[in-house]
Amino acid sequence: MNRAGLVAGLLALAVSGAMVRAQQPRPDQFEPIGPIQKVRDNLYMIPGQGGNTAVFVTGTGIVLVDTKLVNNGKAILERVASVSKLPITTIINTHSHFDHIGSNEAFPATVDVVTHENTRAVMAKDPTVKDKPQAMPDRTFKDRLTIGQGAERVELYYFGAAHTGGDAFVVFPTQRVMSAGDVYPWKAAPVIDDASGGSAVALPDTLDQVMRTVKGVDTVIPGHMGLATWADFVEFGEFNRQLLTAARAGKAAGRTVDQTLAGFKPPARFDAYLANQPLKGLEFLGTARDRARINIELVYKGK
Fold it and tell me: What is the DSSP annotation of 188-225?
């Protein structure tokens, strides 16, 4: 899938009811790249210009998780240099979208790029990266992969379709931190790229698998917002389960998508997930309420 097609598939929101039409985003529509932030011990986060980038400093080099939009390699390196002079040795991409793999090619060919096997398959069809060896994955995994050893190990997990069909959850066990990518991007229903294997129907089950399998994490690096707690992540899973249940019930009762959304009244603790305000820093994606409506519609379609 080329970049224009991907953006169109993700962001061209149909005009219906409260929905808005989003245009292809420009780099200036994303928040600027921010300063590096300490998360825990030798683990840091760089926000802005696409997905959050995790920076893990090991004894032999730096492990990056996601590389933002294109042309951010220099800025990432400058921020990394402020905490370590060691070279970048590994890049882990949580999924295939341009705001998470965009600057892969800015790093040396010696850097080991790792993704889930389904993510590599999507990238292999993307003309913006498929012919650029430095941007493409060097190795993949199916269900689980360990990088490094002891206190410096990184655990990669795949639990099934969610935002895409190849979302990797990256766990730093000693630091008690998980990088969740865009399966958990913000406090709202996530974008579902069904053309790349994502599924609003499968999403709650995938989140349940994460919660049942991953242990010892208390901090989560989301795809696009500030740091969250494990309890925040659990709440996110509960909201998406309730949204799926409401969508299935609405379809079975013959209600329209808008009727189902109007009748969806989860507990007050989920108010932010249905807020009729633009997503901060990602206004082109509409409001949290828009995101819920889109995912209800996908469930109606069985996607």
Answer: SPPP--GGGT--TTTHHHHHHHHHHH--S--EEEESSS
Q: Which residues pair with 62 in a beta bridge?
A: 57, 88
CA–CA separation, 163 and 152 (whole Å): 28
Q: What is the pLDDT of residues 237-269, one digit of tens each?
A: 999 999 999 999 999 999 999 999 999 999 999
Q: Is residue 146 part of a domain?
A: no
Q: Which amino acid is at 292?
A: A
Report the distance separating Cα 251 and Cα 248, nearest Å: 5
Among residues 17, 68, 15, 21, the alpha carbon closest in space to that of 284 is found at 21
pLDDT for position 130: 95
pTM for this model (two decimals): 0.91
Domain span at 267: 3-141+151-300
CATH number, domain containing residue 37: 3.60.15.10
Asked, for residue 91, whether it belongs to a domain, the answer is yes
Type of residue numbered 106:
A
pLDDT digits (tens, 9 = 90+) for 101-160: 999 999 999 999 999 999 999 999 999 999 999 999 999 999 999 999 999 999 999 999
Strands (E), the chain: 37-40, 43-46, 53-57, 62-65, 88-92, 112-116, 139-141, 144-147, 154-157, 169-172, 177-181, 219-222, 228-229
